[in-house]
């Protein structure tokens, strides 16, 4: 599975597990943007330099956190953290794709 597909699956999973109430502040367009942005960040991850183990994954997580806090401030902080963590885990689990 590609990094982009894996990121979409993980982020969609987080959104589904969060429940309707947590997703209520998000329009369908917002949800789509969150999923697509996670895929783009995962796609970019292999191009990031990594001087220490996990640096690439942490940078991807930080980028997702920044996007969510700026463009989707209506998402609860706990859900933003879970979404950013999901993208980070994708990059960590697919090291061959991200090197």
Count of discrete alpha- or pi-helical segments spanning 4 or more residues: 5
Give start-end ranges of low-pLDDT stretches: none
Total number of beta strands: 0
Question: Which range does the strand content fall in?
Answer: under 5%
Shape category: globular
Tally of separate domains: 1
Question: Rg to the nearest angstrom?
Answer: 13 Å
What is the element string, with H for helices and E for strands?
HHHHH
Q: What is the first-to-last residue Cα distance?
A: 16 Å
Pairing-aware structural class of the strands and helices? mainly alpha
Mean pLDDT: 90
What composes the largest sheet?
none
Overall helicity: over 70%
Write up this protein.
This protein has five helices and no strands. It is an all-alpha fold and 99 residues long. It has one domain (5-94). The longest helix has 17 residues, at 28-44. The radius of gyration is 13 Å and the shape is globular.
């Amino acid at each position: 599975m590609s990094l982009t597909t894996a990121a979409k699956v993980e982020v969609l999973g987080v959104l589904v597990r969060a429940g309707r109430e947590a997703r209520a502040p998000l329009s369908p367009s917002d949800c789509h943007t969150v999923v697509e942005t996670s895929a783009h960040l995962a796609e970019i991850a292999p191009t990031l330099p990594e001087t220490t183990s996990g640096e690439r994954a942490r940078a991807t997580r930080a980028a997702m956190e920044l996007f969510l806090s700026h463009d989707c401030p209506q998402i609860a902080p706990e859900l933003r953290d879970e979404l950013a963590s999901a993208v980070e885990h994708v990059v960590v689990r697919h090291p061959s794709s991200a090197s």
